[in-house]
Amino acid sequence: MTPELHAKLTEWRRHLHAHPELSLQEKATAAFVQDKLAELGIPFEAGIGGHGIVATLTRGHARSRVGLRADMDALPITEDTGLPYASTTSGVMHACGHDGHTASLLGAAALLAADSSWSGTVDFIFQPAEEGFGGSRAMVAAGLFDRFPMERVFGFHNWPGLAAGTIAVHDGVVMASGGRITITIEGHAGHAGMPHLTRDPVVAAGHLIVALQSITSRSVDPLDTAVLSLCTIEGGTAPNQIAGRVTIRGTLRYHREAVKEIILEGIERTCAGIATSFGVKVTPEIVWGVGVVINTPAEAGLARIAADKVQAELRRDLAPSMAGEDFAHYLRQRPGAFVWIGNGELRHGAELHGPRYDFNDAILPVASSWMAEVAKTALASN
């Protein structure tokens, strides 16, 4: 990558960082991407599954076709970086690096547009709503693989704590599946000085939170991987009234479908027990996310070959993450691989989804070059 292109991508990335948009609201981001694709002379179709965009390049006579994907949405987090290009939108920031993913994919498009050495078709997928709002599912439902019949699909996520520019490729499981859980506890409100006339959902909630932790520690095989994190609790409006309702929200994650069933049965059993013990009604509701991200063997091999071609350090020894990624939905439709590209040193508060996180612009050349190279490698392999 030339210094000029690196500088341009850095400028684009920082513009996106300063103007983040939440899931399903990526209108200006999509317009920015379309403007840059037009500047690069690359044709595209917009409005796919919401604000999704697919740009397409074709060279030569080969019929092989491959997809490259980046996500575009930001998070409802208040930025605390103090950077000159920090978010200008109150309470919203690119805390997961999707600004960098988008800039990297634009960079890959620029590299491939200027490269005449390959033959086939490359589709560049700019996806909205990755952060729990089903962006990949919406694009597939809108006919992504019918309208753009790619045979394989590849993507990456930046990874704080992994040396900058190092590429990690997993054999098999990369990231977890899971769901969002909401538990409603309905009791009987009343005077805090006369608790015997109430059914206290707050006390029940306290016992429930502790009891649910025994599912991962006592019901799931220690050699399996599972997470059940209860992250918010809401209930009551006055300090002298026992509330009538409490709501608990959280997330659960797993790498195997069998573990999902164990967790689900444990949640239902524990909620029923707490309801009986405290005379309250406990209702768990789970909205299941997309599946586990699992690299297919041949495509993981192509990802490693591409890493070697761009002369990046390659890691094959990292454990899968319990974070989720809706790239999994693409991998249910097509073979592919999802890799991690090191973002550099892990600093306190600058983890993924942290208020001091920032994508490392120094890795843009590696990220763009790897995406371009894995597309060329996949096309040549056919």
From TrEMBL:
**SUPFAM superfamilies (UniProt xref):** Bacterial exopeptidase dimerisation domain, Zn-dependent exopeptidases
The answer to whether UniProt assigns keyword Transmembrane to this entry is no
Q: Boundaries of each Peptidase M20 dimerisation domain copy? A: 181-269
- Which UniProt keyword terms apply here? Hydrolase, Manganese, Metal-binding
Q: Name one GO biological process term.
A: diaminopimelate biosynthetic process
**A Gene Ontology MF term for this entry?**
metal ion binding
Q: Which cofactor does it need?
A: Mn(2+)
Please tell me where Mn(2+) binds in this chain: C96, H98, E131, H157, H353
What does the record note about the cofactor? The Mn(2+) ion enhances activity.
- What InterPro entries does this protein map onto? Amidohydrolase (IPR017439), Bact_exopeptidase_dim_dom (IPR036264), Peptidase_M20 (IPR002933), Peptidase_M20_dimer (IPR011650)
UniProt cross-references to Pfam families, sorted A to Z: M20_dimer (PF07687), Peptidase_M20 (PF01546)
Record-given protein name: Amidohydrolase
Task: Identify the species of origin.
Answer: Bradyrhizobium symbiodeficiens
